[in-house]
Write a sequence for this structure.
C-alpha cells in the first residue's frame, strides 16, 4: 500500500453522528495530519453552508470542501472546481414539473444560495434539518442565462411521487443531467458526471497526487465508487453492508470513534 498523502471523507454517518456531533478525539488529532501535510477533505451532498461549520469545527479552515457531491469544490470562499447543470435542460425540467408534478417542492442551489419559489412544508422541513433559509424567487428567473451557475436541484415530495418521477425522468432525453435518489422522497439533480468518485479524481489532481495515495472514508451507497477507486478505502462499522464489499478495511461504528480508530490503525496519528 502506498503512503497516504490525502484523505477524503463523507460527513453524515462518518464524521457526524445521528446527534449531529463530531468526534472530539478526531478534532484533537487534526493538527497532527496538518503537521504531516496530509489534507483532510470533506465530501458531501450538503451545501457550502451545511459543510463549512463542520469543517471549521474540525479545524479545516483552509482545506477544500467538495459540496453537492463535487458539483462545487471550494477552498475558503474561492471556487476551485465546479460543474453546473445545463440551464436549457433545467428549464425543460421545470416546465415538465409544473404541468405533470405540480406538488413537487423544487429547491435550487447556486453556490451558497438556496432558492425556491415558495416556503412549503418540504422546504420548511429541509430548513429545520440544515439550519438554512431559502431565498424565495421565481424559478424560471433563476435559470436564466444572466443568473449565476446552478450546482444542484433537490426535488422533494411523498416517496411514491418522487420515485415515480425518478423513473419518468430516467426515460426522458436529458443528456446533460443526472437524477438519483438520496432518500426515498429526495431526488437530487446534478450535471451528468457529478459524483464523489469524480470529486476524488479532481481533488487528487488538484493536489497532484495519484489515487493510490488517497484514503477515502464513507458509510453509504454513493461512497462506494470512491472507496473502490482510492488506494485505501475505509467503510464505517455502521455502513450499509453493500458498501463494505468495496472497502479495504472496515473500521468501528461512528459511535465508537471509527474514523479516529482507522487513522490510528494505519499510523496516521500518534496516540503515544
Amino acid at each position: 500500500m502506498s503512503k497516504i498523502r490525502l484523505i477524503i471523507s463523507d460527513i453524515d454517518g462518518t464524521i457526524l453522528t445521528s446527534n449531529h456531533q463530531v468526534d472530539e478525539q478526531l478534532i484533537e488529532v487534526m493538527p497532527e495530519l496538518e503537521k504531516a501535510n496530509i489534507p483532510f477533505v470533506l465530501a458531501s451532498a450538503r451545501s457550502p453552508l451545511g459543510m463549512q461549520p463542520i469543517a471549521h469545527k474540525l479545524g479545516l479552515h483552509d482545506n477544500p470542501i467538495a459540496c453537492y457531491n463535487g458539483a462545487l469544490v471550494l477552498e475558503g470562499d474561492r471556487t476551485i472546481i465546479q460543474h453546473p447543470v445545463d440551464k436549457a435542460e433545467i428549464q425543460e425540467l421545470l416546465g415538465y414539473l409544473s404541468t405533470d408534478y405540480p406538488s413537487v417542492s423544487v429547491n435550487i442551489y447556486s453556490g451558497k444560495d438556496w432558492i425556491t419559489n415558495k416556503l412549503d412544508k418540504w422546504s420548511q422541513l429541509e430548513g429545520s434539518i440544515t439550519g438554512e433559509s431559502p431565498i424565495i424567487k421565481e424559478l424560471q428567473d433563476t435559470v436564466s442565462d444572466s443568473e449565476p451557475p446552478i450546482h444542484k436541484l433537490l426535488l422533494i415530495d411523498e416517496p411514491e411521487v418522487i420515485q415515480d418521477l425518478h423513473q419518468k425522468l430516467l426515460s426522458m432525453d436529458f443528456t446533460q443531467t443526472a437524477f438519483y435518489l438520496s432518500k426515498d422522497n429526495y431526488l437530487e439533480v446534478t450535471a451528468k458526471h457529478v459524483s464523489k468518485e469524480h470529486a476524488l479524481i479532481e481533488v487528487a489532481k488538484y493536489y497532484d497526487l495519484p489515487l493510490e495515495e488517497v484514503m477515502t472514508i464513507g458509510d453509504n451507497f454513493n461512497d462506494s465508487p470512491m472507496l473502490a477507486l482510492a488506494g485505501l478505502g475505509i467503510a464505517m462499522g455502521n455502513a450499509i453492508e453493500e458498501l463494505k464489499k468495496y472497502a479495504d478495511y472496515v473500521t468501528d461504528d461512528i459511535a465508537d470513534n471509527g474514523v479516529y480508530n482507522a487513522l490510528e490503525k494505519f499510523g496516521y496519528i500518534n496516540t503515544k
About this structure: The two ends are 24 Å apart (CA to CA). The CA atoms of residues 110 and 150 lie 4 Å apart. Residues 87-100 form the longest helix (14 residues).
